[in-house]
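Whiteboard transcription, Tuesday session. T.W. wrote the structure tokens on the left side:
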């Protein structure tokens, strides 16, 4: 602390001691000087208010005693807190955006009136179709509504139980996707698993006019249902979680396609999910590979598909569990019919987003999320060996790699990601190059300008899968027709007759009978294909 000169003059003893110190006198003890100096400083602090009685106190001294301080700090706080009090409207509605204009009570009143016209005011699953239309829902929501209202237990639904169920659903769920999940899902679940679709699809099989011929072939109900379920999850379940959420339902066309079933009598015209022709193609392909007909195919069986077009290394990756669910494939080395549905669609339509993900998982051997040059070379090695066995000189890997990098144009040099393959729109050529020799050679022989034209064409063209299924169905039906007429002794007449058009297949004509009879013969003693 600084000591003023005037203060030293008032204490001569202290001045003397300081003078002795300045002269370097040894007899002045430092401890004595420090004691005197500390005493002097305390005296100055105590006497300071008395020396200047007229000096006003600092503002900080009066701050605690002021009842309403004029400090600008509270004012600044008010300005900062003002935006926090603004009411931000809700912008996330997981159960759909509520409609304030909807008159739910009027709808419930109409439902109650409709039940009054039903005997005993109890509706079965067929009368539930009228109730579904009154609720503003598609016809084939009737089975989920029937089960949600407790009809599965008694076979009938009363007006009270249905209205109570529907009122609760309207209060908690506000769009079609949310309502659909609530009706089909298990209690306290907000997502759909594969078995949740079975009642809905069984009702479609039982009541749709395009599937009436299946009434004589009940053994195929479960197989058709399994096929439809796998196609639904293949297209809708973009997260690969095995559980469909309301968000995934909203982003898909499933509910719109389900509503079309009510308007379209020929179910084969609805190629998404429900086409019987597509089911027939998939099941026949599986039957050809399932040599022992136990509804499972081995790795050797799958390698025979399309005359061993796919490489052994990619088939090994499929059976490694990279793209299959359950422990049957990994432990027992067997693929179920449900897994085969995913394989076939992915193999025949490599432009599909799910197919791109399917084959990316297979080629990503180390699971790091990128395809390295080592992994590309690993799969191309087998392609080279097969081409050399056929007498074809393969392109050196370095040259091929330059072509593929130019094709994909990856964001990071030396690493191809899933995003790169989806963006380039040439994933089908990329994949066939590394593990499908037949299609790779087809691509090599095509005009590169035609390939570019296909990529740039964004019109509503049928998908690769739709084209494949239509062609294969024509071939299969022609073979079955020839076989049937040969067995009847009219093979010579068949050569001059024109086959029936494919539009007649499904709910009428000769082909549906041929198809169902052929499948019945193939089926024999097979068990249900439903997943365990």
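and on the right, the sequence the group agreed on:
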């Amino acid at each position: 602390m600084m000591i003023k000169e005037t203060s030293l003059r008032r204490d001569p003893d202290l001045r003397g001691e300081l003078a002795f110190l300045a002269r370097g006198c040894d007899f002045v003890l430092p401890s004595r000087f420090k004691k005197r100096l500390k005493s002097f400083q305390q005296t100055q602090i105590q006497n300071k208010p008395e020396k200047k009685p007229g000096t006003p106190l600092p503002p900080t001294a009066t701050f605690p005693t002021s009842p309403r301080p004029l400090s600008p700090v509270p004012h600044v706080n008010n300005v900062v807190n003002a935006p926090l009090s603004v009411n931000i409207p809700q912008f996330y509605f997981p159960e759909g955006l509520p409609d304030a204009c909807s008159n739910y009570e009027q709808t419930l009143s109409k439902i109650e009136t409709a039940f009054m016209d039903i005997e005993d005011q109890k509706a079965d699953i067929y009368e539930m179709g009228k109730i579904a239309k009154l609720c503003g829902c598609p016809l084939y929501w009737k089975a989920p509504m029937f089960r949600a209202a407790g009809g599965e237990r008694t076979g009938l639904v009363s007006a009270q139980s249905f209205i109570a169920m529907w009122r609760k659903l309207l209060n908690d769920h506000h769009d079609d996707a949310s309502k659909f999940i609530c009706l089909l899902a298990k209690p306290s679940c907000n997502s759909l698993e594969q078995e949740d679709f079975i009642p809905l699809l069984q009702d479609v099989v039982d009541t749709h006019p395009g599937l009436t011929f299946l009434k004589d072939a009940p053994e195929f109900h479960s197989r058709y249902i399994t096929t439809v379920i796998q196609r639904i999850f293949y297209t809708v379940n973009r997260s690969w979680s095995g559980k469909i959420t309301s968000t995934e339902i909203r982003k898909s066309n499933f509910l719109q396609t389900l509503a079309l079933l009510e308007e379209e009598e020929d179910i084969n015209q609805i190629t998404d999910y429900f086409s019987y022709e597509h089911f027939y193609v998939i099941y026949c392909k599986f039957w050809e590979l399932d040599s022992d007909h136990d509804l499972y195919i081995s790795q050797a069986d799958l390698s025979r598909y399309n005359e061993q077009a796919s490489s052994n290394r990619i088939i090994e990756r499929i059976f490694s569990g990279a793209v299959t669910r359950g422990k049957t494939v990994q432990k027992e080395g067997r693929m179920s019919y449900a897994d085969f549905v995913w394989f076939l669609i992915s193999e025949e339509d490599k432009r599909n987003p799910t197919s791109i993900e399917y084959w990316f998982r297979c080629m990503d051997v180390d699971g790091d999320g990128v395809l390295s040059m080592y992994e590309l070379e690993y799969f191309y090695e087998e392609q080279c060996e097969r081409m050399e066995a056929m007498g074809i000189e393969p392109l050196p890997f370095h040259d091929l790699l330059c072509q593929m990098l130019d094709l994909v144009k990856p964001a990071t040099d030396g690493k191809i990601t899933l995003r790169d393959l989806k963006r380039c729109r040439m994933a089908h050529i990329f994949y066939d190059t590394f593990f499908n020799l037949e299609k790779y050679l087809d691509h090599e022989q095509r005009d590169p300008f035609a390939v570019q034209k296909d990529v740039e064409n964004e019109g509503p063209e049928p998908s690769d899968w739709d084209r494949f299924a239509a062609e294969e169905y024509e071939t299969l039906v022609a073979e079955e027709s020839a076989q049937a007429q040969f067995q009847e002794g009219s093979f010579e007449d068949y050569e001059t007759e024109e086959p029936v058009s494919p539009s007649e297949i499904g709910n009428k004509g000769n082909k549906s009978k041929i198809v169902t009879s052929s499948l019945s013969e193939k089926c024999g003693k097979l068990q249900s294909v439903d997943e365990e």
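Someone added at the bottom: The CA atoms of residues 138 and 256 lie 9 Å apart.
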